[in-house]
Specification:
This protein is α+β, with helices and mostly antiparallel strands. It has 3 helices and 4 strands; from the N terminus they run αββββαα. The protein has helices spanning about 5-15, 50-55, 60-65, and strands at about 20-25, 25-35, 35-40, 45. Strands 1-2-3-4 form a 4-stranded antiparallel beta sheet, covered by helices on one side. Strand 3 and strand 4 form a beta hairpin.
């Protein structure tokens, strides 16, 4: 379990006010990064993994699903850096 401080620090490393986009089964999902958390589908979420679970119905890594890696850089299709 991650501490609130760790989650807040990770969210700050992502661009607040930024947006993450992912197309899944013909639907484009847009997640806004805010200081309070992640905003998707009309409500706030604490983690990208929770959003990913709602989108896919399976337990995936949220950052990986949205193309983020540990260094905070984007990863394109098939794991190629963009």
């Amino acid at each position: 379990m991650q501490s609130v401080r760790t989650v807040a620090r990770r969210r700050q490393s992502q661009s607040q006010g930024g947006r993450l986009l992912r197309k899944w089964n013909g639907t484009t999902h847009v997640v806004e990064i805010r200081s309070e958390g992640y905003f998707w589908n009309g409500r706030f979420w604490r983690s990208l993994s929770a959003i990913t679970r709602e989108i896919t119905g399976a337990q995936w890594s949220g950052p990986r699903f949205f193309g983020l890696n540990a260094a905070g850089q984007g990863v394109g299709q098939k794991g190629r850096r963009t």
